[in-house]
Structure formats: C-alpha cells, structure tokens
Amino acid sequence: MIISSKKEEKINEKMKYKKLSDLKIGQRGKIVSLNILDKGIRRHLLDMGLTRGTIVEVKKIAPMGDPIDIALRSYELCIRKADLDGIFVEEIREVK
Amino acid sequence: MKIGLVGNQNSGKTTLFNLLTGMNAKIGNWPGVTIEKKTGTIKGRNYEITDLPGIYSLSPYSVEEEVSRKFIFEEKPDVIINIVDSTSLDRSLYLTTQLLELDTDVVIALNMADMLEKKGISIDIQKLESELKVKIIKISALKETGIDELIKILDEKKSSKSAKGVHRLKKYDDVIETSICRIENEISSDHTEFIAVKLLEEDSRFSNFLNEKIKRIVADTKNKYKYDLEEEIATQRYNFIDKIVGSVLKKKIIRKSVSDTLDKIFLNKWIAFPIFAVIMFLVYYLSVGVVGSYTVDFISNATDMFSGWVDETFRSINTSDMIRSLIVDGIIKGVGAVLSFVPQLIILFLCIAFLETTGYMSRIALLLDKLFRRLGLSGKSLIPFIVGSGCSVPGIMGTRIIENEDERKMTAILTPFIPCSAKLPIIALFTGYFFKENSGIVSASLYFFAIVVIIISALIMKKIVFKNTSSTYISELPEYKLPSAKYIFKDVWDKVIAFIKRAGSVILVSSVVIWFLLSFSFRLEYGVSIENSMLAQIGSKISWIFNPILGTNSWGATVSAIQGLVAKEQVVSSMAIINGLAEDTTEGGLIFASTGIFGFFTAASAYAFMVFNLFSAPCFGAIGAMRRELGGTKRVLKAIAFQTILAWGLGSLVYLIGSKLENGIISVADLIIGAIVFMIILLIIASSRNKKNNECANCPYCSACEKK
C-alpha cells in the first residue's frame, strides 16, 4: 500500500521531521520520506542515492541562498531547494 | 570485439579512453564533459572501444545520458568496462549492479584507488570481486597504471568468450527476487533480469514486454510494500551496496577538506561574486592587454619584413605583378593578419583550460544558478558560456548537459554572444589601435557587455518564446583538482594548431577569393583602382546598412563584417587585404592610417563595429551546431535574425552615444547617471514580474498545473 501524500505529511508533522531544504549548514539528517511529485526528479534522486535511511549533511549553500550542496554517500550533490521539497529528514544531533 | 566504456560522470572515462586509444578527446573537471559517444581502437589491438557520456543509472535523465543507454541496448557491446570511482564507491556501484543485471560481460576498472589510499583507506579488491562476482582491475587513469592489466583481461575475454549470466547477485529481499524470477520466465529476450526489474519499477519504456500475467505479478508485489516499488528497489539496491562497501573498505571515507576550505572563499556570501568578476576580467585583460602589448609590434614588424622579403624575391625572379600581388597582398596579408594574434590566443586558451580542469566552473554554475533561473536559464548554462569563450561550437554542443529543453535551447542561442577566440583578433586589432594603453580594460568591458546582452536577450526570449519555466538543477560538485600540466599543454597546443590550420585553409582560400574580387572589375580587367573592383561595387551598394554603426558609408568595413560568417577572424584578414591593396604609399602597413581606407574609424565607431561583429550571426560552424541543438532550420534562421538585428541595434546605439561623447555633447558623468537610471528601471521591471510569479515559484506541482 502506498501511503497518500496527505497522510504522510501529517506523520511528518507529528514526528517533528524537518524538510531537508530547511537544514542549515553543518546540520545532518536521516532521510525518512521522499514525497516528490515529479516522477522524473524522484527517480533521478533515488538513483543518486537519496534513499530512505541515507544520512545527508548540508555542506554549502550558494551565496544567493539556493541551490544547496549536500554531502551524502561520500560525494557532494548540488540541488535546488525546490527539487528537495518533499524530502523529510530526522535531524541527527551529535554530541561532540 | 566491441567494448563500451561506462561509468558515472566525472569518473575519468575519457582519460582512460585517451590512454587506451592514444587519442586526445576532451577531458575536464565537471560532470558532463563527454556529450557524444566517441569510438577508437585500443592501441596494439583491433578492439573497438566507445567512450560514452557519464550516467548514474540506466534510467537516463538528460539527452546525453540517453546516448549511453542506447549504445548498451542497441549496439550490443561484447564487453562493458565499468569505470568505478573509488572515492565515491557506493554511488558508483549503484550503476555497476544495474550493469550486472544485463547479459553483457562486465569488467570493473577501479579508478582513483590511489587517491583513496592517500587518505589512509584501502579497498579489499579480492573481497569486492567475490561479492560482485566480476573481474576488477585497479587502475589510475591519471598516473597511467593498471592499463596493461586491463588490456590483458580484455584479451582473455576475447579468447574465452565466456558466457555471462550464471553468476547472479542476490540484491533484494525474497519477495522481489521471487517476482523477478517469475517475470523472467514470462519474457524471451536478452537481458531478462534487467527487464524484469524495470517492469517491477513500472518503467514505461519497457511496457511492450507487459502481458496479463506480468501485470498481475507486479500488482501482487506492489501490494506487499508500503512504498512504491521504484523506491523500494532503489533502497534495497543501495542497502545491498552499503553492506558490501562496509565490508571491503578498511576505513570510513571522510572527504578531504581542501575543497571545503577553498569553497569557504570561492562560495563566500560576500566575496564570491567579486572573485568571479575579477577572474573573468583577468582572462581578457591578460590575453589582450598584457600579452598583446608585448607581441603586436614585434609580430607586425616580422610579417612586414617577411612580405618585403617575398616581394623582393619575386621581383628578382621577374614574376608578373599579378602573381606577386596575389601572394604578397592577398595570401600573406590575409593569413598573416590572423596569425599575428596567436600569442593572445595562447593565453586565452590557457586561462580557459585552467577554469575547465580545476573544478571552479562547477562552483560558478552553483553561484549563478539562482540568478540565471530568473532569466529562464540554468546555472549549468554557464558551462557552455565558458567553453564558448574558446569556441562556440563545443560550447553549443555542451548545452546537452542541461536537462530542461527550454533552458537548453536558450543557452544554445545565447552561447555565440560570448566573445570566442576567433573574435579575439577583432577585439585585439581595434582595442590595440584605438584604446592603446587601456586595451586590456576595453576588451574586458566587451566581455561584460556580452553578459549584459545575454541577460537582456534572455529576458526577451523568456517573455516571448520560451514561457515554460519548471526546471531542475541536480549536479554533482566535484572536488578541486590541480590540473595536470601535461593535459593543459596538450589542450592549448591542439587549439592553437587548429587555429593555425584554419588560417592555412579557410582563411587562405578566403584571402585568395577576396584578393580576386578586389583586383578585378566586373569586366575581369586586372589592375583597376580598388574603387572599381567587384567587391567595392557590391559593398558600396549595401554600405548604407552600416552607416549608423560607422557614421559613414564604408564598403570595406561592410564586406569585411559580412565575411565574419565564414570565420570571425576573417574580418581582420579581409580588412588587412583591402587596406593593403588600397594603399598608394607603403607607410608601415597600418590598417587604420589616417590616409587609408579605414582612416575614418574613431574610438566610437571602432567600439560600435566590434559590438556588431561580436553579437551578430556567428560563423557557419556555430550556425551548424545551433541547428543541431535547436533541431530545425527555421528556428536557427529566427535565432540568427534575432542575433543580427540585436547586434545592429546595439552597434548603432553605441555609436550614437559614443560619438556624442567624443564630440563633448554629453559627458562621462551623463553616461554613468543614464546607465544607473536604466539599471534601476530594469530592476523594477524584473522585481515586479517576480511578485506575480511568487505564488508559483515554490509550488511543487509542476507538470499538471494549469497556471503555467
């Protein structure tokens, strides 16, 4: 069964998951849902390794605030905030 | 034997291809350098090897990636060399696991393992081999190690012709694995495992394999998962890879922070744009201003001495005036005029090679994406622009890395606006004479002029032609690399040689034709005064067109500008020949001597004439490239008309303002205030339009939205 996007959004709110595009530089998160409507973009992001459970870190943000550069799977990917809309992460807070 | 070279973007495929074949295909440090497949033969063998554009998976996303997928399925290579980037092993292996689902034999070339070892991480290759059930060769394309071993494996593959497909990997959970097997039983074709997976993912490209039973299997499988199968399969595939990678790597990969440190500077909120502007300024300042001032006099003296010597020699052996004139006034003048700019070109090519290989270009693309998006372009449009500052043709072809069709086509039309290396002789000639010590600054100003023109024309095109705006920007950010001196030398050398070859072929032939048209009248009489020659007669009929740009009717400048269609440097060559033949006295051969035919040029008309030549229709080569990328003659004609009309308008405007400035009717202060007012108006227009689109800007509903 595929969970409807509305239902998933509610879960995201309840669990206090953050949008990946809202993370600040240096913040890390574990992907919990990929709620992307454009099938082509979704497929491409899956292929690039943005799958559920993957840990991502926002490394750089372009000087004008968009796109952002995220590190995952030992490489870096530049991507527009709009394309990341619908990706929710569970923020990882490390004790240093 | 047919071999395909497959791997992620920027993983070193082309470097390996060049090593294996001894060819010199273009390499660089940004994702998507290779846009067309290129075939060669492995040195010392008769194996045909094809270098393919980089892909991340077998479900292609952009035009150039489709080339690779098509090759694998339609041209059926015997062996695929899968080049794997050790520094991002898990992402690279994603494609590998897809390739291993095919029936084609695969060899893995594990590249850049040395870079990994430097960071204290080693890969257990034997373990990786047994996990993936495939032969792995450790290579370094950059340091040229492991290549012989790779060729040896290919030899073995050739002699044994071992059938593949017995060793299957268990990548998914039992439910999916069972479904794959059941679907495979239903289809009879090559690559059954791969197709079965695609059918489960509901990839429409494979729907011709569907039958009722398969549809049922897919539906049943789908019901067992919370998420759709496309996501489920990708996730399980990555989980499988993560398990393997975890067991073969001796230490966790941590990215070197040199790139991060550099990006703190180059992507800094405040100084990123100034740095970019300074770098672009330096490229033109160095090549035209600094280098030009040292070489121009020396080279023009040398060519004068050479043509004088040839002239003397011909006189001493009693050749006819006509032959002597053809050689000295036609060929040597025409070709020499172009060749005298080689030193400036060397510096320009050197600068471009640096930008291309260090990885800085991907940063500028990131930097400018938001700005470019407002114009209907993508940050990736910058890459064709920079490549186009060498030559428009590869620049235009490079637009294929842009996924969105509108953005791609707009970029292809805009790329010729960037001053290419063939336009550099025009710039160097005019700025060197009319702006002497400021020639570097004036040439750089033309580059910034080009940027303004690109912005304005993008806005016009976005409003009128390309209205669809939904697009994406997804691109890998490569690490900074110190470019290899050997490659840079080779790249610059190749480009300079190509330029010289063009001078020896296209320019030479054109020079002969121009000399003929200038030396004969329509009645084919030789030795008529130049005003009565064929070219002058034709030119004076249409010279009124350029009157608003030049401030006078000049047939010489008119016919020269038109010759820019053949090759932009031909403008310079033609002017040199016309001036040489028109000269009564030989006073040093200066093109702009006040008594000469081009003596009317002032700083204002010089700048206006340069503007016209820079922005009008590009040369035939670039027009051909545009035709391929725009897909249709009609569209190209429209694009060329747009470019030429715009160039004429801008040239006229520059002369109008420039001549007023020269005559003191308006002052520099007036001009600056005018420019500021113009910019403010432009900003107001741009921001008011953004307000209207704000509602749609952040909306994720892309394809089906009625508002667009």
Question: What is the compact description of this entry?
Answer:
The complex is a heterodimer of chains A (96) and B (708). Chain A is built from three helices and six strands.
Task: Describe the overall structure.
The complex is a heterodimer of chains A (96) and B (708). With 96 residues, chain A is of the alpha+beta class. Chain A has helices spanning 5-14, 39-47, 81-84, and strands at 18-19, 28-34, 55-61, 68-72, 75-79, 87-92. Chain A has a six-stranded antiparallel beta sheet. In chain A, strand 3 (55-61) and strand 4 form a beta hairpin. The longest helix of chain A is centred in the N-terminal third of the chain and has 10 residues, at 5-14. Chain A is globular and about 35 Å long. Chain A starts with a helix and ends with a strand. The relative contact order of chain A is 0.25. The model of chain A has no long low-confidence stretch (mean pLDDT 83). With 708 residues, chain B is mainly α. Chain B contains 29 helices and seven strands. Chain B has a six-stranded mixed beta sheet with strand order 2-3-1-4-5-6, sandwiched between helices. In chain B, strand 2 and strand 3 form a beta hairpin. In chain B, helix 3 (89-99) packs across helix 10 (229-248), helix 12 crosses helix 20 and helix 27 (620-630) packs across helix 28. Chain B is elongated and about 90 Å long. The model of chain B is unreliable at 691-695 and 700-704 (pLDDT under 50).
